Amino acid sequence: MLVMYRGWGCFDYELDIDAMNVCTSKDWEIGERWREPEQWVEACVFELTKHNESEIAARGESNVEYLLLSEHSYLDEMELNFPYSNKKDIRFYLCEDEPAYANGYYQRREQKTFPYAIGDIFEAACIGNVPKKQTETELNNLLMPPAYLNPNHPTFSLELDIAIKAWTAVLECNPDKPKQGSRRKFIAEWLEKHHSTLTEEAKNRIITLLNPDKNGGAPKSI
To answer: What is the DSSP string of 57-73?
Structure first.
């Protein structure tokens, strides 16, 4: 299963002892893993682990600790400038956006988990039809997030971003009016679960925007 990730993380890989050109007093062992410093990746395609795939298949979502480098990822050997032994087992551990701060110094960014749901999964074109540099393909244009979802854009709207995620999670795959409850209730529950720190005014604005049942009320009984 392929997913998109944009943010901070660090690569973790099995060392290729023969390719290492470093002077060190440590005796490296075959199969030992090494973790690179944190780095930012821009809208990169990764694969989910088998464990996360199984969870999504069973529960519809999974909290992901690390992703696997994919053949669809735009990063190539020159950008992955470290001595890995197996490209299929290069992991990308997800990290917080802000570095930790202690004793007056910035520390390494803390690792985090990121929730992926079944709606985040996509299928890429056949491997043979996708050039190594994803940025040279139409696929990358389709996968790059639009400007209004870029948190670094000067007019980025957090409420709009949350509203789009709420619509995707609650309404995209459930277009029919529910037989029990209401769309307004389901949207409100999602907001409370995932964005409980929003003000009530902000939640109500998002609910009003997304709720297609403008007349309100419970569904009519048959």
So the answer is: HHHSEEEESEEEE-TTS
Separation CA 131–CA 160 (nearest Å): 34
Residues of the chain with pLDDT under 70: 17-31, 76-79, 86, 101-106, 123-145, 175, 179, 215-222
Burial of 102 (0-12, 13-18, 19+ CB in 10 A): exposed
Q: How many Å apart are CA 64 and CA 7, to the nearest integer?
A: 14
Residues linked to residue 40 through DSSP beta bridges, in sequence order:
8
pLDDT of residue 221: 45
* Domain boundaries, given as residue ranges, for the chain: 2-145, 153-222
Residue 156: CA count within 13 A, CB half-sphere: 12
d(CA 167, CA 60): 16
Q: Which residue stretches of the chain are H helix?
A: 50-59, 138-143, 158-166, 183-194, 200-210
- Six token digits for residue 189: 């529950």
Q: Which residues pair with 39 in a beta bridge?
A: 9
- Distances in whole angstroms, Cα of residue 132 to Cα of each of 107, 128, 129, 198: 34, 10, 10, 41
Q: What is the 3-state secondary structure (H, E, C) of 138-166?
A: HHHHHHCCCHHHCCCCCCCCHHHHHHHHH
Looking only at the bridges linking them, the beta strands covering 33-35 and 61-64 are unpaired
**Considering the entire predicted model, what is its pTM?**
0.52
